[in-house]
Write a structure and sequence with these properties.
Order of helices and strands: HEHHEEHHEEEHHHEEEH
Shape: globular
CATH class of the largest domain: Alpha Beta
Structural class: alpha+beta
Strand content: 15-25%
Radius of gyration: 21 Å
Largest sheet: 6 strands, antiparallel
Mean pLDDT: 90
Helix content: 40-55%
CATH architecture of the largest domain: 2-Layer Sandwich
Organism: Effusibacillus dendaii
Keywords: DNA-binding, Transcription, Transcription regulation
GO molecular function: DNA binding; DNA-binding transcription factor activity
Pfam families: HTH_IclR, IclR_C
Number of strands: 9
Protein name: IclR family transcriptional regulator
Length: about 260
């Protein structure tokens, strides 16, 4: 019996975490039925789990819609993460300085499973901006920061990404494995990556690696902007600025050549 109770408790915990992870910028609030259908769970199970999450402050019920959104307990945990995340703390002043200098939006992204996830975003002053956000996920093979991270992974990992499929998001997306391998080798040699409308048409980006004290690439710093402002003629200037910022952050993390 104790073993069955433990299994039941672990199952409930897993389902509760699935519910929390189902929230996103595109889906900020959800109803019981909506959650049940999306997670393939019974409505009574979802109601019980949601009630517990509300009680603990992880979800809040909206009075008008009767749907549920993330609560302040989630925010409190994210605050703890960011306050203890070395990359974030050490990079923040450097990235702000970079954005002040070049006046383009900057992100820091890290590897999470087979995807890129953004842990920082500093906006530029231009009116034309991009609807990215902290926590947003993107593919590795068609973003500049993703390609930087991918270029420094083991061959088996790169092979897995290719086998999972290289979806063509725009006419410029690299979907040929041989060309992708060539691109990754070039990135390691030149020290930065570019993405010219490979994920979104009209959007250019440039990224370089951030290393920890062991020399391992742990993150990528990216500048992103419309192709009119970040054309190929600016690559030399922007790559120099991004690489310098990455070197400073890496030194802050204890990396010295």
């Amino acid at each position: 019996m104790p073993e069955k109770n433990e299994q039941r408790m672990l199952s409930s915990l897993s389902n509760a975490l699935r519910i929390l992870r189902s929230y996103s910028m595109d889906k900020p609030s959800q109803g019981i039925t909506e959650i049940a259908v999306a997670q393939n769970l019974g409505k009574s199970t979802v109601h019980r789990l949601v009630s517990t999450l509300v009680k603990e402050g992880f979800l809040v019920k909206e009075s008008e819609t009767h749907k549920y959104r993330l609560g302040y307990s989630v925010l409190a945990l994210s605050g703890v993460i960011f306050s203890t995340l070395d990359i974030y703390n050490e990079a923040l002043p450097v990235v702000r300085k970079l954005v002040d200098t070049v006046d383009e939006t900057a992100h820091i992204g890290i590897l999470d499973g087979n995807e890129l996830i953004y842990i920082m975003k500093i906006e530029c002053t231009h009116h034309v901006r991009f609807l990215t956000h902290v926590g947003k996920r993107n593919p590795l093979y068609c973003t500049s920061s993703g390609k930087v991270l991918l270029a420094h992974q083991e061959p088996d990992f790169i092979k897995q990404i290719i086998e999972n499929g290289l979806v063509k998001h725009t006419p410029n997306t690299l979907t040929n494995p041989n060309l992708l391998h060539q691109e990754l080798a070039k990135i390691k040699t030149q020290g930065y990556a570019t993405s010219f409308e490979e994920l979104l048409e009209g959007v250019h980006s440039l990224a370089a690696p951030i290393r920890d004290y062991t020399g391992q690439v742990v993150a990528a710093l990216t500048l992103v902007g419309p192709k009119q402002r970040m054309g190929r003629s600016k690559v030399a200037y922007l790559s120099k600025k991004v690489i310098e910022a990455c070197q400073e952050i890496s030194q802050n993390l204890g990396f010295y050549r």
